[in-house]
Amino acid sequence: MRQNTWTEDELKFLEENYPKYGTKYCMEELGYTKSKIQNTTHKLGIKLLPNVKSKLLSKLPSKCNINPELFHKLKDKEVVYLLGLMWADGFMYQSPSKHVSNLGFTMVKEDLEIIKTSIDTIGKWNYHERKQTNPKWKPSMNVITNNKRIFDFLVEHDYDKKSHVSADKILSKIPNNLKHYFFLGLIDGDGCFYHYVPENGSTLRQFALASTYEQDWSYFETLCSELDIKYKVKRNKGEKSSSSYIRITNKGGIKKLGDYLYQNIKEDNIGLIRKYEKLKLIIK
After folding, report:
1. Continuous H helices in the chain
2. What is the C-alpha to C-alpha distance for residues 211 and 217, in angstroms, rounded to an integer?
3. What CA–CA distance (Å, rounded) separates 92 from 12?
4. How far is it, in rounded angstroms, from Cα 64 to Cα 75?
């Protein structure tokens, strides 16, 4: 490695390329040591672009309970399913110092037992039972990990504002052959297949996906359009609480959605089986 002083051309190269490509690239192109590159960029205030820093960190060997590279590559169906589940029921918290970057999701305990095997293939999670303020509520669990790299990835893809934006950013990164796992996770979190047969009257069948009043449903509307499904979006504004939901009430549309969501259920068994069983009652 060279140890001589910087030329004007070298400093210009460093200023233009370090933010985009990082230390290793500049070392190889300029022939300087790692410490010299890093000391000079620090002294001159040259920093990596935020998205570049996240990508470079994701390529380092992971000492975390969960490897961030799984989220950057998005090749595993379990990770894609988790991303859908977290779009529905996920939470994030970061301390001012950023030493704590917690992320995770909440789920009813009996449902978690069903999907736990899939979630555990991603890495090691911390499981904590929640204290319920209402005795009528079912026991539920928080599933948490502390991982700044994954936290940054989620922020980059709008998970910090998922209550009022579309999921277009994360969906654009997911391969088409895996996207149904995202929607499966989403529906396992916030969706419901409803089937009711009264003693007198017609059978009630519907699918509903609920969220906040401000939710941008355009990403799910796009899916419905692609599957040729008729749907309705409704928003309820109340004094104490507000909400919105997208609803499918025609049997044919519900079947099309079910065929899309559960196209691989016999092979991989990912998702809440009770919702699949309810779907089968609807389309029977």
Report:
1. 8-30, 34-44, 50-58, 69-73, 77-89, 109-120, 148-156, 168-173, 179-190, 218-226, 251-261, 265-268, 273-283
2. 9
3. 39
4. 19
Q: Tokens for 68?
A: 């961030």
CB 135 within 8 A of CB 120: no
In tens, the pLDDT along 245-270 reads: 999 999 999 999 999 999 998 888 89
Q: What is the mean pLDDT of the chain?
A: 89
pTM of the entire predicted model: 0.77
Mean pLDDT of 134-159: 92
Q: Are 109 and 141 in contact (CB under 8 A)?
A: yes
For residue 192, the surrounding DSSP H or E stretch is: strand 191-196
End-to-end CA separation in angstroms for the chain: 72
* pLDDT computed for residue 24 by the predictor: 84
The amino acid occupying position 155 is V
Q: CA-to-CA distance for 22 and 18, rounded, in angstroms? A: 5
Smallest Cα–Cα separation from 104: which of 121, 78, 128, 80?
Answer: 128
Starting at the edge strand found earlier in the chain, the sheet holding 242-248 runs: 191-196, 204-211, 242-248, 232-237
**Cβ–Cβ < 8 Å for 106, 142:** yes
Element holding 101 (H helix, E strand): strand 101-108
Of the two residues 51 and 71, the one the predictor is more confident about is 71
Q: What is the pLDDT of residue 58?
A: 55
State the pLDDT at residue 135: 82
DSSP conformational letter for 139: P
Residues 6+ away with beta carbon under 8 Å from 3: 32, 33, 36
- pLDDT (tens digit per residue) in 183-233: 999 999 999 999 887 777 677 889 999 999 999 999 999 999 999 999 999
Please state, in angstroms and rounded to a whole number, the distance separating the CA atoms of residues 169 and 159: 10
Measured distance CA(122)–CA(28) in Å, rounded? 34
Q: What is the DSSP string of 226-242?
A: HTT---EEEEEE-SS-E
